[in-house]
Amino acid sequence: MQVQQNSHSKEGSKSEKVLFFPHDGPASEAKKRRVAIIGTYTPRKCGIATFTNDLSEQLRIHRPNVETQIYALDDAGENLDYDRVERVVQFDDVEAYRDAANAINDSGVDAVWLQHEYGIFGGENGQMVCDFVDRLAAPVILTCHTVLSEPTDKQKAILEHLVARSSRIMVMSLHSRDLLASVYGAPHDRISVIEHGAPDRPFGRQKQFKETHGLDGRDVMMTFGLIGPGKGLERVIEALPAIAEACPNVLYRIVGATHPKLVARQGESYREGLKARIEELGMSRHVEWDNRFLETDELLDQLEACDVYLTSYGNLQQSTSGTLSYAVALGKAVVSTPYTHATELLANDVGVLIEPNSSDAIAAAVIDLFDDREKLRKLQERAYAKGRETIWPQFARKSANLIEAVCEERPRTARLNVATMRTPDFSGVRGISDATGILQHSIGPIPDRRHGYCLDDNARALMLMNVAEDLAGPTRREHSQRYGSFIQHAWNEELGRFRNFISFDRTWCEDEGSEDSNGRTLWALAQTAEINPQPDIRNWAAELYCRVLPRFDDLGSPRAIAFSMLGACAFLRRDPDHGASLEVLRQGVALLRSILAKSRRPDWTWFEAVLGYDNPRLPQALIEAASTLGDEEALSDGLHTLRWIEQQQTSAKGYFRPIGSESFGREHDYVPFDQQPLEASASIDAHRAAYRITGDEARLNGALKAWNWFFGANDRGVVLADVGLGICRDGITPRGLNENCGAESILAFQLAHYSVLEMLKQQRAKAAGEQFEVINR
Question: Which residue stretches belong to region Disordered (predicted)?
Fold first, then answer.
């Protein structure tokens, strides 16, 4: 250990020897990051408020590339005056959490850092935090200030929910890390242990600060922090007579206000009870109270004036203690019960650990240190050396690294043209298909036979066979027959509906599929009848379409109606005089426009009170029907609702953010995850329909924004699609990729490719002043 003159300190005397430990210099140039921090905040009197303030302040000082915005959890009854906060969030107000989440999403921050402890959020055990975190689009860093080894069912469910939503988790002890993994299922590779930060001050200035505080000649013990029964002050007070007998000049300083929640329940009766006990023991001369919640600088000055710092918690699960971290960093000799944080921080003789709830153990440890001044000094030096690992520059560096870990560079998205559009390999589709059809699901890249097949996916697969380029004739025919056969076998003549789900053993799981699956199948048949390269397959599809269409005059689902309208448009391009298809279009336009008129309101220009899946298909159906029928009002409604849904699905940074599946069922509300390829594909198709009619370059840009979502221009910067393999991952969760490659995702990606390709061809023809022959995709 190096001992040298502290020439940089104004406060130290020239003759005083101090220990000096170098630390990081100024932060190197780094990419700017913006982080929203949620938690209690100063001037609120609690440890998490202090931590939130310290985290923001130390990042500002030591990592100026990180800009923080504070969202302060507030209790209106405390009437606090906050400074430098982005927003004050009433802790028990559901709407306040929603507004805060929307504000954070709109701000476009790179990450959100959530401070969690059960008591600071509203609801039972703070359950309001769950809905709040569900609404956050940016990656979430979670600090677990409390990790219980034996939580209640409610407490466990809340923390498990937060763990599932978090990209990274910060804890301050190894024990907390292991509990998170074993009890709450947190993956080890997402947990970072960053010890509580602490101030950086010179070593060994007790004499100077004792003189300042009128404590010269006293052997000073100290405890500081919010006062309450859990601190174990009773045990220290009971130990005082023995300590005072051995060390007549001892003084025990209890610094800190009574915990506000304790005061609210019972006033100052707890503190007065301690004072009465001190008086009864005849120890009043050996105890000094400072009943204030001190600002950090004054608190540190008082801490520097003590020799021995005491922390005698009875709760040995205490995973974090900021006061302990401060004491160690300032080089105090610490006597502590072996609660979790103390056991780790004071290991290797950094402090003295004693048995809990024992006044005799406290007395013995303190007397031993004051009897042996060299031993006391060595213990203080070891504490100071340990503290160099947690001082603010180190804490800020580790915190900035954690932020950077969730803000990885997103892949650059190229400007696309026809020449650079590589065709997705067909092996992705072939690999998840068999003689029956295309399987629904996968585990990673491996098809999962347990879930069998569904009509929806086989209809999409048939549509892909209609538009796929560079596909050998025999291959296209074979697969068109396979998926067409599935559709044909799904028809239930008796009920006049297609079945949807079939198990791997080819046993139908139902007699009638959903309206949406039936509507999509009508669309697939009509598109096949229009553009499949094989004349006999076109004729088969036309015959089946015409045979089943009259059985679908009672569809009620808006999406089923939209799918059938898209099918009718396709069939009318084959046969412009097909009366049944014209009737489907007219009725569909009337119905969609009617429900839009009933549902829309100033802030909600949509067909339903909820946002579900395949949302852009609704405006797409109106746009294509308007083109076929020459209906200007339908076109206006279609373009207007397309622009509205595009706004909802665009992040503050301009990325495509598909309405997540977790939004299903939420009225006039939606959340960011889970994001799925189906929505991106539908958006591209809707923009393609609008671009084909209007030539508006904004529609092309909207489609390319959704296309780039597949390749990293998204909320997590992850790549879903692999052109070379022809596969696509199943979506984006709060923690990143869903690694599975199901049929819906692969087909959505491949179909999206051909829609984008058609738009680019149209753009090129438009630039060259050429006529462009539109092929329905």
Answer: 1-23
**Structure-token pair, residue 247:** 């060390």
Beta strands 111-116; 87-90: pairing state: unpaired
- What the block records as the tokens of 664 is 């299903």
pLDDT value, residue 296: 79
Q: 33-39 and 111-116 as β-strands: parallel, antiparallel, unpaired?
A: parallel
User: Has residue 705 got a pLDDT over 90?
Assistant: yes
At 569, the amino acid letter reads C
Coil/strand/helix, residue 449: strand
Tell me: pLDDT of 412 over 80.
Answer: no
Q: 441 has which bridge partners?
A: 448
pLDDT tens-digit series, residues 496-527:
999 999 999 999 999 999 999 999 999 999 99
Query: What is the DSSP code (8-state) at residue 404?
Result: H
Burial state string for 757-767 with b = 16 or more CB within 10 A and e = fewer than 16 = bbbbbbbeeee
> In whole angstroms, what is the distance from residue 61 CA to residue 396 CA?
9
Element (H, E) at 384: helix 373-387
The first and second tokens of residue 142, run together, are 């979670």
Predicted local confidence at residue 418, as pLDDT: 65
Whether the full predicted model's pTM is greater than 0.85, yes or no, is no
Q: For residue 198, which of 23, 328, 5, 346 has the smallest C-alpha distance?
A: 328
Measured between alpha carbons, how far is 314 from 387 in angstroms, rounded to an integer? 24
Give yes or no for a contact between 281 and 243, defined as CB atoms under 8 angstroms apart.
no
CATH of domain 418-767: 1.50.10.10
Q: Which CATH superfamily is domain 31-197 in?
A: Glycogen Phosphorylase B; (3.40.50.2000)
Question: d(Cα 127, Cα 137) in Å, to the nearest integer?
Answer: 19
| CA–CA distance, 742 with 361 (Å, rounded to integer) | 63
Fold of 206-387: Rossmann fold (3.40.50)
Q: Where are the domains of the chain?
A: 31-197, 206-387, 418-767
